[in-house]
Amino acid sequence: MRVVRMWMILITLLLAHVVSFARAAEGGIHWYKDLDEAMAAAQQSNRPIMIDFWADWCGPCRIMDAEVYTDPALIAAFREKMIGVRIHFDLQPKVVRQFNVPALPYLVFTDSHGTELLHHRGMLEAADITAVIQAIPADLSEINRLDRALQEDKNHFPSLRDMGQRLRDLGFYEASNRFFEQALRRDEAKKDAAQRETILYSTALNSLALRDGKAAASALERCLKEFPRSVRRPDALLALGRAYLLQEDSNKARRSLNAVIAEFPQSSAAAQARELLQTL
Known about the structure:
Blueprint: H1 2-27, E1 31-32, H2 35-45, E2 49-54, H3 59-68, H4 72-81, E3 83-88, H5 93-98, E4 106-110, E5 116-121, H6 126-135, H7 141-152, H8 157-169, H9 173-184, H10 187-191, H11 193-209, H12 213-226, H13 233-246, H14 250-263, H15 268-278
Parallel strand pairs: 1-3, 2-3
Antiparallel strand pairs: 2-4, 4-5
Helix pairs in contact: 1-4, 4-6, 7-8, 8-9, 9-11, 11-12, 11-13, 12-13, 13-14, 13-15, 14-15
C-alpha cells in the first residue's frame, strides 16, 4: 500500500507540473509593443525587461515565434520574473538607434529603466533564453536605485562605481565595464589611488572573463605601472600573463608569469603561474 501511495503522489505531482506548463503555453508570453509602457510595468515590480527586436521580413524571427516563444518553460519563466517587449525594426527606429541594433534577431536584457545588462545578436534556443532569465535577479531594486541616481546625475561617482561592481557580481561584465570606465574618468577616481586601482583591476578581470585579452592587458599594465607596490601585484602579474595568452603572445606571457614566480615564489599566484607555463 505504501508503494502504491508513493506512486500516486508522484503521478499527482507530475500531472500538476504538466498542467502548469500547459496553462503557461496556452496564455503565451505577454508582449508589450511600446518600451515606455514596458518600463512602467517593470518599475512597478522592479523586474528586468527583455527587448526582442524583430521585423516581418526576418526569417529567423519567424522561427523564434514558432519554435522558441511557444516553449512552456520559457513562457513560465517570463510570467515569473520578466517583462517582454517587442520592437519592430522598421517602425520604431528611435529605439533601434538607442540600442545600436546591427541585425535581426537582436535581444537586449535591461533593468527596469531600460539600461542594458546584456545583449545577443542572432537566434537563441528557448533553453538559452530561459537560462538568462533565471540568472537575472527577479528583484532589481538595488540596480534600479543606482540607475535612478545616475539619471539624476550621470557623473555621480559612487553610483557609477557601485553600479559597475553590482553588475560585475551578477556576471554582466560588458555592462559593468561601461560604468567602470565612466567612473575612471571622474575626478574622484583620479584623486583617490586606492579606488582607481580597484576599478582598474576589476575592469581587467571583466575583460578576461569576456576573453578580451587586449583590453585586459591594457588595464593590467596600467595597474602595474601606477601601483608597483600594490598587494594585488602577484595577482595582477598572473592576470596579465593570462591576458597575453589570450592574445597568443607567448613571449610576453612567459615574462609576466616568470615575474610572478621570481617575486612571489610562495604565493598561490606563483603556483598557478607554474601550471600555465607548463602549457606553453
